[in-house]
Please model this.
Amino acid sequence: MATTSPVLLIFGAGPNIGQAVSRTFKARGYKVALVSRSLKEGDSTKDELHVASDLSDPQSVVKAYEKVNKELGIPSVVVYNAYASTPHNPADDQFAVPLDLFAKGLNTNTVSAYAAAQHAVQGFAKLPETASRTFIYTGNILNEGPWERLLVLGTGKTAFAHVIESASRGYKEKGYNFYYADERKADGTAIVDVNGDAHADHFLTLANEKEQGPWQQTFVKGVGYKRFPIAK
Model:
């Protein structure tokens, strides 16, 4: 049954960022749908829908949206927080990851995220202009260059950073906002142990933005909320 409360949909609702974002948005009156492989759908409540889904299968995104739209309503904020990393050994063999695992990782990091954004846009078109209509992808520094043994993860993040930039430009006039969010240290270098609460606060700020400026990257915590225009 649909609701008049705004709906947040989180793909990859893990114990850190996913749960923190869920708590923060629920405190602001959102209904929340959580999508994760480990969730039990029987644990759903009237304010929090659980959807068990393996995001290495992009078709699972379609099924998740069908369930969320039916049970809670059209999501006005969608967070794609799922990821797959298959570190390769030895570190100096960039093609040590088997083809099937590379494809599976690309599905989780990029193809399913594309499906999530595609369905988000379809939903945004049905929402009033006063709704948030925001898509946030949890990124990292890998779109700026490779790290040892993280070819699979870096390829997926880099590919979807391109998607986010394209979408942020293409849907700007419609008022749909797209973000690639990345937590950094104060000096701008990468951080490994990310802060879930910092992401949640930042994502709420993004969801409340009325208009998106030029994209490249939006930073969590240390550097502060900031956009860097791309030089063309």
